[in-house]
């Protein structure tokens, strides 16, 4: 046990878990004291969702090293399978937590399967081509969901792509998915505690994968594909593994998020490529391959526009300027050289001071 | 007859995509970056003409020229401020995210100035529509102008790239930046020139797009921008004839699937065709196969 704790990686992992748990405790205390505004309380579930998406996308972008712009599509699959399951099972499974857990697992499973189906042909492409194809898949998923009508009556499920009347349901049947109007009527089971639990599970899965033999194989592919192949690593298998796990985790996040609303639709702003890009921004700003960074960036960047609500007209403008500024400051070689210089200067001064003290 | 008119509409829409795709393709070829803000430059071009022609009553031709000049300066400014510092960054993702930031920035500036409700764009085309086959087939003036503009732009651009020194410099820089610099080519200047041309083309595309589909909002450019990129990838990125073929194919597929299959699924069909093309030919229809050295 002692030796285990001495390992640097384990320490880092434990600190990441610790940060999440401590944040949870602080937020719970703040809520009990009534210090959290309604607006912020409403943001807790979305923040958990974004954190999960950021962690899972970081698996694709940071660990596998492939640029995916279709992450929102997988979340979308999760939302719709999860919520449809919950609505169908509302009267069958009484205990809401069992139903919700099953819905999340089902969402993850479906998104994972879609991930494998998409990944198999697409992962042969590289770089920006892969990005544009994943973006295309995300849009296809959104468009297809927007034409589906799904209803339920005593006969079972009815599906159609034209309209509600084409479902041919009995009069007491319920329409679950109404085309572009989305799903309606799911139980609102999502809350902050479950969100934190899911974040911890997501983190556990991703970090365990990264530190396993499989994870090292995946990172070897990222660092040098040809070298990895020549030492006998099965490229397709490991690429697909990382991609589908990432998709499944996004699906779980989606199923969780779907249960936060009474109605959710697959619109451009929530499941279009814009959303995928937003999650990618979390990942890149937090540090590619750095899970803790992803969490922090997702929380801060979700809160930032909300904090700026007072100047509502300008908030997204400021957001964009902050984004450009942060990217330039973090990534441009000149800024990096400057930071390095400042570091040396400050450290030098500190050392000098220490010597004088001695 | 309806099929012919759909095909003509498709070619017209495809011509707009081709003009946008050219800008995307040239920038990608030379700077190796996905310029996500390109679509929003289209929107800016549209708004400049809207303000000048509809708002101030200035001659449409003059306002188009002003819009091109404005977008050229805008494109070069964006390149100078947001993209150039990151050209040698360790991760190519950095400049992608900055481009997204620029895209948000342009959208929100437009949102603050013009509001979110779509504006009715008065078409700048004054050519009367063409009636063929005893009025069974009507080709609108916008369609004619769009197709003619696309052909002229393609020819001029091909001549520019193949016959002028600046054009050859562009080819050299897209091939190998380091070697081009050693040959005495001003790499930064050449990249700035590419952005300038791409942005001027975006302004023209914006005007043509808004004339054909007369509504203008801060988000007008986003989807055509993405589709134009798809068109560029489709035809083989970095290739001018490729952008033309890709754009026109995309326009045709979109209009025909809207007409005969489903208007809601047309985008899905466009993207599905892209995926199939890329799976069969990973570098696009006219793309070059690049051998990777170990």
Count of separate DSSP helical elements of chain A: 15
Q: Structural class, from helix and strand content of chain A?
A: mainly alpha
H and E order of chain A: HHHHHHEEEEHHHHEHHHHH
Number of continuous helical runs of chain B: 11
Shape of chain B: globular
Main β-sheet of chain B: number of strands, strand sense, barrel status?
A: 2 strands, antiparallel
Taken from the alpha-carbon principal axes, the silhouette of chain A is: globular
Approximate helicity band of chain A: over 70%
Give the strand tally of chain B.
4
CATH topology of chain A: ABC transporter involved in vitamin B12 uptake, BtuC
Assembly state of the chains shown: heterodimer
Give the termini separation of chain B.
56 Å
Global Rg of chain B: 19 Å
Order of helices and strands of chain B: HHHHEEEHHHHEHHH
Distance between the termini of chain A: 38 Å
| Tally of DSSP β-strands of chain A | 5
Provide the low-confidence segments of chain A as ranges: none
Biggest interface, chains and residue tallies: A-B, 49 and 45 residues
